[in-house]
Specification:
The chain is of the alpha/beta class. 39% of the residues lie in helices and 21% in strands. The strands form two sheets. The chain has a five-stranded parallel β-sheet. A two-stranded antiparallel sheet has the order 1-7. The model has no long low-confidence stretch (mean pLDDT 91).
Length: 154
């Protein structure tokens, strides 16, 4: 067994938000983005391929795009989470459809929890996140310190 200590990661008032939507949820995400465009445009946006292009066209703002989810975009976002480059994830996923990249999605969701990243997977949760006063303030995110875990005897 190992003892885990904690670290703090300070999030600036301008957050980096990852936006992801499965095919059957893209229209819903675009409606949500329009509704919250005033808040969303104050932050840096990252999205998977097609979703990012649709958001760029809708809002007229730059969106850093990674690959499409099935082509590795979910894994790219997971790496960015592990590197501390993403502050919030908005992921409108389709619970009624199997995805060819389900293992990648599960890995992304796991990393969100490992690194204590706020996530919304539906419109209601995303509404709550965007309307939180913490969206425009610095925030101290408590992170586990995995050094002891990495140095344990195996």
């Amino acid at each position: 067994m190992y003892e885990m200590t904690k670290n703090v990661r300070l999030l600036s008032p301008q957050k980096t938000i990852a936006l992801i939507a499965h095919d059957h949820k893209k229209d819903e995400l675009l409606e949500w983005v329009k509704k919250h465009s005033e808040v969303i445009q104050q932050h840096q946006l990252i999205a998977t391929g097609t979703t990012g292009k649709l958001i760029e066209n809708e809002l007229g703002v730059p969106v850093h795009r990674v690959m499409s989810g099935p082509l590795g975009g979910d894994q790219q976002l997971g790496a960015m989470i592990a590197e501390g480059k993403i502050d919030i994830v908005i992921f409108f996923w389709d619970p009624m459809s199997a995805q060819p990249h389900d293992p990648d999605i599960k890995a992304l969701l796991r990393l969100v929890v490992v690194w204590n990243i706020p996530i919304a997977c539906d419109r209601a949760s995303a509404d709550f996140l965007m309307t939180s006063p913490l969206m425009s303030q610095p925030y101290e995110s408590i992170l586990p310190d995995y050094d002891a875990y990495l140095q344990r005897k195996v």
